[in-house]
Amino acid sequence: MNIKLSQISFLLIVLEFISYTIVAQQTYFPEQGNWEEKKPSEFKINSGKLQEAVQFAIDHEYSGSKDLRQAILKGFQREPYHKILGPTKKRGTSAGLIIKDGYIISKWGDVDRVDMTFSVTKSYLSTMAGLAIDQKLITTVDDFTYKYIWDHTFDGKHNKKITWRHLLTQSSDWSGQLWGGYDWADRPPREGGIDEWKSRKFSEPGSIFEYNDVRVNVLAYSLLNVWRKPLPQVLKEKIMDPIGASTTWRWYGYKNSWVNIDGIKMQSVSGGGHSGGGLFINTLDHARFGLLYLNNGKWKEKQLVSENWIKEAITSSDANSNYGFMWWLNQKGNRHWEGLPEHLFYAAGFGGNFIVIDQKQNVVVVTRWLEPSQIDEFMTKVYKAL
Q1: Architecture of 124-248+255-269 per CATH?
Q2: Tens digits of per-residue pLDDT, 251-291?
Q3: Which CATH code fits 31-119+276-385?
Q4: Which residues pair with 106 in a beta bridge?
Q5: What are the two backbone dihedrals, phi and then psi, of residue 229, each rounded to the nearest 5 degrees?
Q6: Which helix H or strand E contains 48, and what residues bound it?
Q7: What is the pTM assigned to this prediction?
């Protein structure tokens, strides 16, 4: 039988697609209030080694204060004018989940407890931008943001160069003040002082990555103006209700971040808990959100977030190979977890809050209050079990 090489290649592609489709169909999606558990051995996973990883997480609980108000003040004491403007909450102890093919194969701690989640909130915020793109409220991430937000937020020659992409990749170098916070006062350089920080030279938008919560809050404020309704309401209607999340999560802004949209007073939420606020949520709801991204934005038969958006959100940005649209990537770079797959991507927050996603092995890992410096060792132990 004479079969051309091109025909063999085509057949291999078809078989790979069929194989992927079968795996995707086998993914379990938990109903609201119920999540089926299976033993690791049912997936040929070493139960003993997996328990070692869990025990490691328990033994390496975040060393900061359980009074998160105090932990925040201590963690950001270098910042001039830093204040807590949003709600805070005392944290629980170490908790987490390991999900395989949609099933819980390991859990520890109180996974129903609602806790602050800090910068993991940013990955939820990014999703609000993705939904705005999907619904054509924003034409493209490369549009200049000032064309949508015509107040003084993007005034000036420098700020007018900023696009949605720049805000999403934390490379905008936006300059200004929002809710009493100055861009230059957020995580300032270790060298110099207020005079030098205030008179800094601007970086071309898109060229330099800088983790900055004031600029993240500018993105949240801009998306509020685009959606014309509170972002927690958008998240609830478009994402959390369809994936069967609980009703216990909350998303807060600051006491001074209230604005008037269409004659209605709305709160512009924060993208983290740096000054209080952000997303307060339990571990199980985090895992549902992770499972949605594991399956490229699809929950059961419904595409909640476009697959194109998921793909772009987890693509390296020009300014930082380890950062996409507010998702961290395990590519080679400063944040690379040595010995772990480079296709991993994750949400990360202060105090050891993580949602780690492996689309190839169909695994989601959620940790709460793990000592941040131990995440790579913990994940290494998880992969030894897998």
Answers
A1: 3-Layer(aba) Sandwich (3.40)
A2: 999 999 999 999 999 999 999 999 999 999 999 999 999 99
A3: 3.40.710
A4: 98
A5: -155, 160
A6: helix 47-59
A7: 0.93
